[in-house]
Amino acid sequence: MATNTIVVLGAGVSGLTTAYLLSKDISNSITVVAKHMPGDYDIEYASPWAGANYLPYVLQGVGKANSSHARWERNTWPALKELAEKHPEAGIHFQDTVVYNRKKDQGSATGNWFSELVEKEPWYKDVVPDFHNIPEDQLAPGIDNASKFTSVCINTAIYLPWLIGQCRKTGVVFKRGVFKHVADAATAHHSSKKADVVVNCTGLSSRTLGGVCDDKLHPIRGQIVVVRNDPGAMFSISGTDDAEDEITYMMTRAAGGGTIIGGSYQKDQWDPLPDPNLAVRIMKRAIALVPQLVDKGQGIEGLDVIRHGVGLRPFREDGPRIEADKVDGVSVVHNYGHGGFGYQASFGCATEAVELVNGILGQKARTKL
Ligand SMILES: Cc1cc2nc3c(=O)[nH]c(=O)nc-3n(C[C@H](O)[C@H](O)[C@H](O)COP(=O)(O)OP(=O)(O)OC[C@H]3O[C@@H](n4cnc5c(N)ncnc54)[C@H](O)[C@@H]3O)c2cc1C
Ligand SMILES: *[C@@H]1O[C@H](CO)[C@@H](O)[C@H](O)[C@H]1NC(C)=O
Ligand SMILES: *[C@@H]1O[C@H](CO)[C@@H](O)[C@H](O)[C@H]1NC(C)=O
């Protein structure tokens, strides 16, 4: 019997994963309301633009093995692994991934992002399969060290709709809606009963949403090129010689999703339009790093471009906000601010958001007795 009314605000990977986990409890009746839904491509909607892969991430200074960040990503790997192994319809596959490091990138924006990733013994070495360091004598000039492991690549155009399908199977209702204030969301449940809990998964928009204006949120702009070429594995490197906030990485999405080539890591830049000069640098760097991306001897004319894109990573100083709150008498659970790791931390973060929801629902049940 569905007795708990829950509204989830936002249909990015954070909102959909939270709704999916909540929907496994049959006593929950859930409405997901969002301005953007899977199928939309908009600068206010980060999730479709992501690669997306599992490349353990580190917030400067808080990325160590016992941090909450590592916990979220550690707890997400088994779920993504199971989807890749047993649910081909989810659009996730395994791929070898190679991470290159240049010592000179230490301290730059991208070097900080990669700092734990390129450690000799990073916290995730026993989480992902086949982790090993690549022997120095196998490294190309300019690369100081490198590691290799098995990761996953998610085709977001298949995976986000798959999450919706899983939710719809158990009766979750999806609607479009734009809310100026979190308290308004409480009246959006499809039963027209007031929601017991609102879950706030609005990503970067939480910066301006009434009742929660969070100035710790910043966009980190990521520009990408999607191509039909296939390099055969995922590659990334800690930095470039072009700019401190540019980077080179590539990954091939499952099920014919094409190869995403990145990229950039531009803090506080909001420009939704692809910069054509940056696009050329992205393509040139990708070929320099992984020559097999194109036929022998070819330059960027050897890339078969599907589209160019820009997404804004919803970065939050201090890390994502996964927290219970009360706004104008409405119980709210926040789950936003996942920067460049929304997929690889999705199940870990959503599980903790669900625990907070259950705590609020448990209190409600006790007051009724
Ligand atoms: C180029 C790029 C590459 C990336 N690569 C990776 C990667 O490889 N691996 C990885 O794990 N992550 C990656 N990320 C990060 C990942 O995309 C984000 O962390 C994740 O998508 C954030 O999801 P979200 O659900 O929190 O927010 P979003 O996807 O932005 O969703 C927000 C939702 O809230 C809705 N909303 C907002 N405001 C309102 C409102 N007022 N009323 C109603 N609805 C509202 C929106 O319409 C939308 O549905 C990448 C990001 C970019 C840009
Ligand atoms: C790679 O170099 C970095 C410094 O940039 C160092 O911290 C790290 O331990 C090295 N990793 C390996 C695998 O040697
Ligand atoms: C979600 O959180 C943001 C950031 O604190 C806030 O601005 C917004 O009002 C919240 N939305 C809801 C529905 O609580």
From TrEMBL:
UniProt cofactor(s): FAD
Reactions that this protein is recorded to catalyse: a D-alpha-amino acid + O2 + H2O = a 2-oxocarboxylate + H2O2 + NH4(+)
Source taxon at top rank: Eukaryota
Main subcellular location: other
Record keywords, A-Z: FAD, Flavoprotein, Oxidoreductase, Peroxisome
Oxidoreductase listed as a keyword: yes
Organism: Aspergillus coremiiformis
Protein name, per record: D-amino-acid oxidase
GO cellular component terms, semicolon-separated: peroxisomal matrix
GO biological process: D-amino acid catabolic process
Pfam families per the UniProt record, alphabetical: DAO (PF01266)
Family that this chain belongs to: Belongs to the DAMOX/DASOX family.
Subcellular location: Peroxisome matrix
Keyword Nucleotide-binding assigned: no
Residues that hold FAD according to the record: V182, T202
Residues that, per the record, bind D-dopa: G340
Domain FAD dependent oxidoreductase: 6-356
The protein's Enzyme Commission number: 1.4.3.3
GO MF annotation, one: D-amino-acid oxidase activity
